[in-house]
Amino acid sequence: MNRLLVVVDMQKDFIDGSLGTIEAQAIVARVKKKIEAYQAAGDDVIFTLDTHEHNYMDTQEGKNLPVLHCVKGTAGWELADALKEIPGRRFEKNTFASTAVGEYAASGNYESIELIGLCTDICVISNALLIKAFLPETPILVDSSCCAGVTPESHENALNSMKMCQVTIL
């Protein structure tokens, strides 16, 4: 099987840094196990990295979410310690979704594409729907046990929204 796993923004600032949550901390081990299973099966694994500069607060996102996070080169921008040595292509993105990830997924002739990571209600949903737009006939899956949202309620809302857009929730 030729599958792709997209690991979304599993960065320190979203786990135990400036935007961290208990729910995000709780998924790290499951995310690592899922990555290892994909790699053991010979499937592709890629990572997205939310990437901002020191002028973040002057951006539209910074004005709407005034919490400095994932500034390139800082500890908070790094992948979780348990994940940072895992091989896989990294895609830096300065907004919620990455068109480069969509293009990469579209070029791979994958039988399915699964997303996991943070935050369900912002970057996971954005990337899932963007990939779905690139590949409307490819099954797009999200493992809810390997995702966390800003709040548990917004996590559930995002999962329900993705279901309505024909993303399979595991």
Automatic annotation (TrEMBL):
InterPro entries cross-referenced by the UniProt entry: Isochorismatase-like_dom, Isochorismatase-like_hydrls, Isochorismatase-like_sf
Name of the protein in question: Nicotinamidase-related amidase
Origin superkingdom: Bacteria
Gene source species: Lacrimispora xylanisolvens
Swiss-Prot/TrEMBL keywords: Hydrolase
Coiled coil start-end: none
Family to which this protein belongs: Belongs to the isochorismatase family.
Location of the Isochorismatase-like domain: 4-166
Any single Pfam family the record assigns to this protein: Isochorismatase
Entry's Gene Ontology molecular function annotations: hydrolase activity
Keyword Transcription regulation: no
